[in-house]
Design goal:
It contains two helices and five strands, in the order H-E-H-E-E-E-E. By secondary structure, the protein is an alpha+beta fold. The protein has one domain: Nuclear Transport Factor 2, Chain: A, CATH 3.10.450. It has a five-stranded mixed β-sheet, with helices on one face. Strand 4 and strand 5 form a beta hairpin. The relative contact order is 0.23.
Length: 120
C-alpha cells in the first residue's frame, strides 16, 4: 500500500459516512476481511453483518469526518480521525476521536480494519 491508495480508501470511507450510503461500505472490503469496530469485540467478517452495522448512520445527521495519515508502509496504514454528528431522533451531538489501522489488498480493498476511539 502507498499513501495515495490509503488516501483514496479513507476518502471513500468518508463519502460512505457523510453521504449516508451504508450500502457502499461493502464495496470497500475484500471478499474475506476482518473488521474490528472495537478491540473488545469479535470482528465483523461478512458483508451482510458490516452493512447491518453501518445502517446506524441512517440515524445520524450533520456528519463531518476528517483524518490525518500518520504512517503508511507496504502492509498497512495508520490514520488519526475525528467525526462529529448528531444522533436521531434524540438530537444528541457526538464528537469522536480515534485511530485507524487498515490493511488493503492489491485491489485497494480492506482485508483488515482496526479502530480505537473515544468520545470527546
Amino acid at each position: 500500500m502507498n499513501e495515495q491508495q490509503f488516501t483514496n480508501w479513507l476518502d471513500a470511507l468518508r463519502s460512505v459516512w457523510e453521504t449516508k450510503k451504508p450500502g457502499d461500505i461493502v464495496n470497500l472490503c475484500a471478499d474475506t476481511f476482518l473488521w474490528y469496530e472495537t478491540p473488545f469485540h469479535d470482528p465483523i467478517t461478512t458483508k451482510k453483518a458490516l452493512l447491518k452495522d453501518w445502517e446506524s448512520i441512517l440515524q445520524q445527521e450533520n456528519i463531518a469526518f476528517s483524518y490525518d495519515i500518520l504512517s503508511v508502509n507496504s502492509t498497512f496504514g495508520i490514520a488519526e480521525w475525528e467525526a462529529d454528528f448528531t444522533r436521531l431522533p434524540s438530537h444528541e451531538k457526538v464528537s469522536l476521536s480515534g485511530i485507524f489501522k487498515i490493511l488493503l489488498d492489491k485491489n485497494e480493498k480492506c482485508v483488515e480494519f482496526h479502530q480505537w476511539y473515544n468520545t470527546k
